[in-house]
Amino acid sequence: MPTLEISTLLPLDCRPRFQQPTAEDLCVQTPSVTAEDNNEIVMEIFSKYRDLTSLPVIEVGKPIGLINRGIFLSQMSKPFHKEVYSRKSSIAFMDKEPLVVEASMDIEALTFKAVEYGEKALADGFIITCGGRFAGIGHGLQLMRVVADMQAARNRQIMHSIEYASVIQRSMLRTSRDTMLHTLKDADLVWEPRDVVGGDFYYFVARSDGWFGTVADCTGHGVPGAFMTLIASSCLGQAIDQHGPTDPSLLLGSVNRGIKQMLGQVDGQDETPESDDGMDAACFWYDAGSRRLLFAGAKSSLFVLHPGEDGVEMVEGDRKCVGYVDSGLDFTWQKRVVQMQTGSLVFVTTDGLIDQVGGPKSIAFGKRRIRDLILANRDRPASEINRAMQEAMGGWQGPNHRRDDVTFFCFRVQEPQ
């Protein structure tokens, strides 16, 4: 009877130095039979090696098939089959087309091969060769474990990268947040990415005669959205350096051109742009001398509540986004002027708050609830208004999935100094 010591080692000349796992790492040497061996020998091998799920059949050192333990024992247990087939060749119940792979095949390619072969490659295992000669057997369960370990390692590496990207993104936003806190006495900002990093950003600049602010929502969330925030905030910074912060309409137009040029969305630059991305944004300049708020919005609105007023005023922006293929290179966003008073309250949010689904009917949070919350909390500081908004959103969301990144900003006009 053929015998072979069970080992996981391949000949030294068949062990190339691969950095990535290969089929070699799954190779287990097993007993084997030849076509000249009969099924009585096969039965003896399966009886001796209880854990052997498949038995390779080789000819002149090369594999020609694989005998599945379950199928073989099932056939041999049928009436008269043992008497008929015991003396016949081992190829009687052999799978003539098993999965055969070279020891050098990487795990990813092996996984695709195994999937192509279907269930039997995972259940029966697969034959591993070295230079075409039989080396051993690989098992489907081993393959799944290695793939799972590789995926876990990749996920850990990706998460480490994303977590560090979050540090970078928060650092990028810190200057604007510090500017806001030092410039405005009654103001608060909430920035909550849906994932570790997000596609929302804010931008604040202070001058002696006023201050500029932006709350923006870039395409996507997570890593793609975070990349877009870097592009958009960079374009905005360049626009402010070139034009100053006092004209929100001019700045949106400049950012629009910058994004379109950077992403190849300009006519003639690329026949089929790979990117159709951009942002929604609310840009505003507060002129301290005249107490006017100059606003330009790209699919964004301002919620404004003046002292003594019974309702919240909606200052709508244009319905055109910044960037994207269908936005004109020279599109001009309308500049709107809102006269502020001492105690006037302004609230602006990205659509992550407005569009969050929840409540008993699983509908969007909506603008009406925002207006109602502002009215109900009109005499409270901006920070408390934002906390009330967060609590209301969390209660509304309930068990539903968070749909998007969320950013909102609230400030109250103070007495001129």
Can you offer a commentary on this structure?
The N and C termini lie far apart (101 Å). The chain has helices spanning 39-48, 69-76, 81-85, 107-117, 119-124, 140-183, 222-243, 248-262, 351-354, 366-376, 382-397, and strands spanning 33-34, 54-59, 62-68, 100-102, 126-130, 133-138, 187-192, 200-207, 210-218, 278-287, 292-298, 301-305, 313-316, 322-323, 336-339, 345-349, 357-358, 363-364, 406-412. It folds into two domains: 12-138, CBS-domain, CATH 3.10.580.10; 169-412, 4-Layer Sandwich (Phosphatase 2c, domain 1), CATH 3.60.40. The chain is built from eleven helices and 19 strands. Helix 4 (107-117) crosses helix 6 and helix 7 packs across helix 8. The strands form five sheets. Strands 8, 9, 10, 11, 14 and 15 form a six-stranded antiparallel β-sheet that branches. Strands 7-19-16-12-13 form a five-stranded antiparallel β-sheet, sandwiched between helices.
Keywords, separated by commas or semicolons:
417 residues; 19 strands; six-stranded antiparallel sheet; CBS-domain; disordered N terminus; Phosphatase 2c, domain 1; single chain; 2 domains; alpha+beta
The whole-angstrom Rg is 34 Å
Secondary structural class? alpha+beta
Give the H and E element order: EHEEHHEHHEEHEEEHHEEEEEEEHEEHHE
CATH superfamily of the largest domain: PPM-type phosphatase domain
Strand content: 15-25%
**Main CATH class of the largest domain:** Alpha Beta
Largest sheet: 6 strands, antiparallel
Mean pLDDT: 90
Q: How many distinct domains?
A: 2
How many helical elements?
11
Extended strand count: 19
Unreliable stretches (pLDDT < 50, length at least 5) are 1-18
Distance between the termini: 101 Å
Anisotropy-based shape? elongated
Helix content: 25-40%
CATH topology of the largest domain: Phosphatase 2c, domain 1
